[in-house]
């Protein structure tokens, strides 16, 4: 009887030990590593936290920033359109420029930014899309994506994550509708970090006939 109880105790101990080992395989430093990430990918992705936090903000907080850029590139057949906002946050009211290029035609007007709105010094058409200017991307969008490739270079201090293409997220559906893209469109997201202070995101939607690339860059103050 004692031998039987001893066997049960040993078996129970082994079960607990195996369970703990199993849990440790998917956790790191008290944090749970998602199933679609390796430990290395999970740790690398955390270095982009300043960008993730900025993207989640409904009302953008520019404290600690030097520069904010937002741009849209649209290629439909042979027609190419570029729209770009470049704001110097160190100046009052975030002054900067709005640049348009449609084919060979270019135009630039001074702008300022306050309370989530752009103010133009002169008339221009079309105005920059303020939904893109104040782009919101929740962290769970990134968490749901598989990592396709990571890059880290010591010479240029460039870090980059390219995620696998997708066509299911709410973000994708919203952008596909905004730009009237066809059903076969796919979306790929890339984030980058360089020079210790520069963070960027590129969202590219691609179909057979049309391509839309949305980019956003923040440059943080040094020190």
Automatic annotation (TrEMBL):
Keywords carried by this UniProt record: Lipoprotein, Signal
Signal peptide: 1-25
Domain of life: Bacteria
Statement: the UniProt record of this protein carries the keyword Signal: yes
Protein name: Putative lipoprotein
Naturally occurring in which organism (per UniProt): Streptococcus oralis
Upper lineage: Bacteria, Bacillati, Bacillota, Bacilli, Lactobacillales
């Amino acid at each position: 009887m004692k031998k039987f109880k001893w066997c049960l105790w040993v078996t129970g101990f082994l079960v607990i030990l195996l369970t703990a080992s199993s849990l440790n395989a998917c956790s790191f430093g008290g944090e749970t590593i998602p199933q679609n990430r390796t430990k290395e990918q999970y740790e690398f992705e955390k270095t982009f936290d300043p960008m993730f936090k900025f993207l989640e903000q409904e009302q953008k907080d520019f404290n600690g920033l030097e520069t904010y850029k937002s741009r849209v590139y649209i290629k439909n057949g042979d027609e190419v359109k570029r729209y770009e906002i470049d704001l110097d946050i160190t100046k009052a009211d975030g002054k900067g420029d709005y640049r348009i290029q449609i084919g060979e035609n270019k135009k630039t007007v001074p702008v300022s930014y306050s309370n989530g709105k752009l103010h133009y010094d002169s008339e221009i058409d079309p105005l920059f899309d303020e939904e893109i200017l104040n782009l919101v991307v929740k962290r769970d969008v990134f968490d749901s994506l598989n990592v396709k490739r990571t890059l880290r270079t010591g010479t240029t201090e460039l870090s980059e994550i390219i995620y696998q293409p997708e066509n299911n997220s709410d973000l994708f559906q919203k952008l596909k509708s905004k730009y009237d893209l066809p059903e076969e469109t796919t979306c790929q997201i890339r984030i980058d970090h360089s020079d210790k202070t520069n963070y960027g995101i590129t969202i590219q939607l691609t179909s057979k006939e049309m391509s839309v690339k949305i980019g956003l860059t923040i440059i943080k103050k040094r020190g």
